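Weekly structure sync, notes
Attendees: PL, DS, HV (note-taker this week)

Item 1: 5-formyltetrahydrofolate cyclo-ligase
DS walked through the input record. Source organism listed as Helicobacter cappadocius. Sequence as pasted into the shared doc:
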Amino acid sequence: MIKADFRNFCKKHLMSLSKKSNFEDKKTVAMLKREILHLKSKNILLYCPMEIEVNIYPLIYWLKKQRGVRIFIPYIEGVSFKMIPFRLPLVKNKYSIFESKKSLFYLTKIDTAIVPCIGIDRDFKRIGFGKGMYDRFFANLRFRPNIIFVSRKVIYSKQKITDKYDIDADIVLSNGCKLKRGINDRILSDRFYNIWSDCRY
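Item 1 (cont.): predicted structure, written out as tokens:
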């Protein structure tokens, strides 16, 4: 119940930001570019954003121009998804999420996964929309790519509310802020002020 309450809190807060987040999204996209270049990623799993998620279409179009980079996005199948190459045109699925048309494709070992989240807990684990699709997808991989969570704002639960199967991140990027996990599960920020002042649950 606590997890569901936190998820609803996150959704409500992010919906209030969705119409004024263009500038902040640009900052997050710029940070993603730097991380991808730093990691030298060539095979990257991205996502097609919904209204309350960071708009990463500018990142996708930038990556399309980079030599040797392959972009993949989720294609939902049942309770999980498969990874398919990003191709236009995009079509809306039953969840109103854009995706490329299904194609025959053999799984490539991705270097980096950019994963949307609406919140994290003290274990640096993801709170999503509650379908568990990303958790199932990563559980079936035989390798672990670099995982970067992105959100329009870091909304943090000081309690442990996630489950063992929930995925965790290497870093979290949000609104010009970069977070990573420190010693003893401390969460470290590149900002000098208290990032939790108005987004702690």
